[in-house]
Amino acid sequence: MYAIAERYELPGRYEEARSLYEQIVELYPDSPYAAKARYDGPEIYIFSLTASGKYIEAQQAIDKFAADFVDYPRLPGTLYWFAKRLDAAGKYEQARNIYQQVAWQYPNDAHATKALIEVSKVDALSLIESGDDAAAQKVLDNLIGDFTDHPDLPDTIFRIGEQYYNKAFSCENQSQTAEAKSHFQKAIAIWERMINELPQSSITPQAYYFAARCYKRLGRYEDAIEYYQLVLDNWPGYERAWSAQLLVALCFEELERAGIIARVDAALEIIKSCEDLLSNYPDCKGVAAARDLLERWNSVGYVLGEGEEK
């Protein structure tokens, strides 16, 4: 029953999981699984509340949870993950309060330093949301200065840059072109700080990839190609490497359209990028688009390798 309840948790079927945990506690109170289920049932209830957007009820349940399980060893980590759920939902103030609770009440727990980093992150996100970029920059400076070598910091810095990235697209959707460009530039600046000032991590290729996307949106296609190519050269197994390969081709298409490079040169680069994608990522989502590009550019009318018109 406990194993089935755990399986229900994975796709977010929290009510089914909670029901099973409660049955275990009721039917088998002396089982070692009942001891775990007493903790897991209320935990899953809080997950269900945050998933359904009932944040006030979730906060009340979290407070009760902390009071009921004050001596439980897993409590600091569980509170930390409750805060992460609220953080992901944009409930920054609620998340901040719980992160602070973990950092202050459990300073010797492994989650304490993580929680301090998250406090600064939600502060930065809140400041960006309110438009106070100068204050957000100070928070960013302190984060990098205080936690440079912490393994969680790259993901945290990426999230801060992502806030500007999302704001840029929101502005684009509202035809606020100048504001969108400004936010894309701010996202690039943060991700380049991550690239240049932090140790390389699994998040580094993500910073390059999304900075390249910003450069593409800004019409800086050569810079976008450079960053996409760095991803392909150094992290060919990165989950979006196939997309980087396809976007290289699309950037060359834009350069040709703008008259920056000759049509034959664009054709050579686009065809090479598409062939590399089909060869290196044959099962990716970009296969159909790469084949379409190949068909279009193979018909340009040039003898590849000789650079002469047919």
Measured as a percent range, the helix fraction is over 70%
- Number of distinct beta strands: 2
Largest sheet: 2 strands, antiparallel
Q: What would the average pLDDT be, to the nearest integer?
A: 93
Q: Determine the structural class based on helices, strands and strand pairing.
A: mainly alpha
List keywords for this structure.
15 helices; 310 residues; elongated; mainly alpha; disordered C terminus; two-stranded antiparallel ribbon
Description:
Mean pLDDT is 93; it is low at 301-310. With 310 residues, the protein is mostly helical. The protein has helices spanning 2-9, 14-27, 32-51, 55-68, 75-88, 92-105, 111-130, 133-147, 153-173, 177-197, 204-217, 221-234, 241-257, 263-280, 287-298; strands at residues 302-303, 308-309. The longest helix is centred in the middle third of the chain and has 21 residues, at 153-173. A two-stranded antiparallel ribbon has the order 1-2. The protein is 76% helix and 1% strand. The protein has 15 helices and two strands. α7 runs parallel beside α9 (153-173).
